[in-house]
Amino acid sequence: MELRGILGAAATAALLVAGGLTAGAAKAATVVISCGALGQELAICQQGADAWARKTGNQVKVVSTPSSATERLALYQQMLAAGSGDIDVYQIDVIWPGVLGQHFEDLSKAVGKDILDQHFPSIVKNNTVDGRLVGMPWFTDAGLLYYRKDLLDKYKRPVPATWADLAETARIVMEGERKAGNARMQGFVFQGKAYEGLTCNALEWIDSNGGGTIVEADGKISVTRPQAVAALKQAAGWMGKIAPTGTLNYGEEEARGVFQSGDAVFMRNWPYAWALAQGADSPVKDKVGVAPLPKGGDQGKNSGTLGGWQLAVSKYSRNKEAAIDLVKYLASPEEQKRRVLQGAFLPTIKALYQDQDAIKSVPIMKDLYGTLTSAVARPATVTGDRYNQVSTEFFTAVHAVLTGQRPAEEAMKDLDQRLTRLGRGGRW
Ligand code: GLC
User: Fold this and answer.
1) Same-domain check for residues 278 and 236
2) Domain of residue 295, residue span
3) N or C: more exposed end of the chain, with fewer CB within 10 A?
4) Cβ neighbours around 115 below 10 Å, total
């Protein structure tokens, strides 16, 4: 292009800017967002993304990702390490800012303090790596106990206060129901596959027994604490008794499938399972209660693992401006409210916990507010970019204990050594 032409183009661009239209915004962008796909998650993400596209005149493409967080991370790592611009917005786990943060834009300026102040400060802090906000809080999660109200009533059993109570009630109800003709009835289902979900479950068993959080805030490894070992022994004792051995291959959706079909007394899962268990076509509709997960013992405490998802904008995106706009839209109070009502995805915006429509549709937001907001964090901040290796070592060791391949003491001693090496003696 000759100089006059270039000047002409520059003048046109200046006019567009003056008229309030930047060249980027004038041209409709196509933004690609990766969303989770547990239950109705993908459909609900698609609805939100479509609403944004209609509002802004942009286009959006929603891509589905593996339902296992561990597999999803591997996929993201591959794409981001290659500097791929194929995905503009990534749905990232609460434990990933340290692992993936370097590949994402700092959103703090674009989002602004006023909006950020509406969200739980602990999540904003979690998503801030070296002063950069690498993920916009989107929804939060905490491990919960789902139980069959009707069956506990029938067998006159209270909601279990401790894991020992849970095991006993599970056995009594399961045996009773099997005798009564439901041969498929199970006592307890949870996430026992060797993946991130097992890390979440096992952390709850251990922390509820006062056995620590795998790696403590000061970098010390705590997996050989007697309470940690005892908690794993207790869980191993459930296998093939109150929990089907198939649990060793269950993620969230497999556990939900069994429970929602009416074939389990108890289930450990995240809040999203509430909306589905209460769905019009759910065989257990109106038969389900939700409570904090049991305590480790009389000395123990209730413990639910903190989960949740953020929206991050890739550094390699070619549509950053539109991508950031989509993120702001999806994380807005209106959209977070819609997501609670439709899917029980818990908001990261504090004020929504007082919203009457939200509370009516998802009563645990009020009833279990303490449980939801005091959830135990996995050691992602202290272990930083090594978190995924820590978790992989941990769930592999726990899985070996649950299958009976290794005794708990031995597995935890070995794990301690591996984590010590990985964490350079606790310095991380
Ligand atoms: C849920 C949680 C997430 C966790 C995952 C494990 O999606 O929100 O934080 O890592 O489950 O399966």
Assistant:
1) yes
2) 144-305+378-422
3) N
4) 15
**CB distance 127 to 136 below 8 Å:** yes
In short, whether 200's Cβ falls inside 6 Å of ligand 1 is yes
Nearest to 126 by CA among 323, 306, 365: 306
Q: How far is the CA of 69 from the centre of ligand 1 (A)?
A: 6
Burial code (b: 16+ CB inside 10 Å, e: under 16) for 121-132 equals: eebbebbbbeeb
Q: Who wins on pLDDT, 312 or 373?
A: 312
Q: Which of 203, 190, 172 is nearest to 256 (CA)?
A: 190
Cα of 42 vs its chain's centroid, Å: 14
Establish whether residue 192 lines the binding site of ligand 1, counting it when its CB lies within 6 angstroms of any ligand atom. Answer: no
Residue 109 CA to its chain's centroid (Å): 26
At residue 26, the pLDDT reads 53
Would you say residue 427 lies in a domain?
Answer: no
Question: Is the CB of 271 inside a 6 Å radius of any atom of ligand 1?
Answer: no
What is the model's pLDDT at position 297?
83
Cβ pair 54, 60 in contact under 8 A: no
Q: Which atom of ligand 1 is nearest to the CA of 191?
A: 12
Q: Is 224 exposed, middle or buried (0-12, 13-18, 19+ CB in 10 A)?
A: middle
For the chain, the domain total comes to: 2
Query: How many angstroms is it from 285 CA to the middle of ligand 1?
Result: 24
Beta-carbon count within 10 A of 330 CB: 23
Kindly report, residue by residue over 154-196, the tens digit of the pLDDT.
999 999 999 999 999 999 999 999 999 999 999 999 999 999 9
Q: Which amino acid is at 11?
A: A
Is the model's pTM score more than 0.90?
yes
In this structure, the residue with its CA closest to atom 9 of ligand 1 is 307
Is 428 domain-assigned? no
Structure letter (DSSP) for residue 294: P
Q: State the distance from the centre of ligand 1 to the C-alpha of 270, rounded, in angstroms.
A: 8
Q: Summarize pLDDT for 221-252 with one digit per residue, the tens.
A: 999 999 999 999 999 999 999 999 999 999 99
